[in-house]
Design a protein that fits this description.
With 265 residues, the chain is of the alpha+beta class. It is 30% helix and 22% strand. The chain has 9 helices and 8 strands. Strands 1, 2, 3, 4, 5, 6, 7 and 8 form an 8-stranded mixed beta sheet that branches. The radius of gyration is 19 Å and the shape is globular. 32% of the residues are buried. It comes from Podospora pseudopauciseta. Pfam families: DUF7924. InterPro entries: DUF7924. This is DUF7924 domain-containing protein.
Length: 265
Amino acid sequence: MDRLLARKKSSSNLSRKRSNSGTTMTPRDQKPKEEKSAPEQPTPYGTLFDDQIFIHACCNLEDKNEARIIQDISRFIVPSAESLALRNKNHKCLVKSVNKGWNNSIPFTTTHPQPDYSVGFERDAFTEEQLAKPSPFIGDFIPGDLSFSEATYYMYFPFLTSEVTCGAAALDITDRQNAHRMTLAVRAIVELFRDVEREDEVNRKTLAFSVSHDHQSVRIYGHFPVITGKDTEYYRYPIRKFNFTELDGKERWTAYQFTKNVYDT
């Protein structure tokens, strides 16, 4: 573990990367290729996001604390992977953590992340043979080894995190917290591929996602590495930023559907 950590010089950048010409770069290149849109995901009914009560429900959350926002609407912004897995066997390999510190991860700073909600892969998602091959990289969770790949003792390779806050100014802080967490998540993938000399396969590719929201606004980011030799820099770029209460909540399910598409990928 120490060898892998010591031989890398890495930095984290919370901005979108810019080329020498000053134009904004996407994770892959300066001209993103046109992609097919993901299929529209079904949404639940009989919730606070129903047409007749949605706006009133959001108004009730004004000046309320984070716990109330999480209780009332967070799962309609970012659905629970484990709850969806009860009906979709393709999600059974996913596991979530709620307000739990990533104490099994080698820290990027002196503070371990503790997101409101995060999703990764459970240990049973891998065969014993798959776990044996990168075992020096993963470490042994029983005695409490720190590793790049583990967030908690039961979650490997986290790829999505969500944080709830109150107020527009607080969203900026939440964005930075999510950037820190996803730097660790992206680093895990980079270090795994670097260990088998295949890091070019993940260079400038979006490897993780984060969501910040309050009672009316959502910010969705993608996170990717830029690998230059032995050095790695970590970046984020905004996928969507919007007020989900505007136009009578026309896009209130956008983040929900996006998250389900991430789970399906």
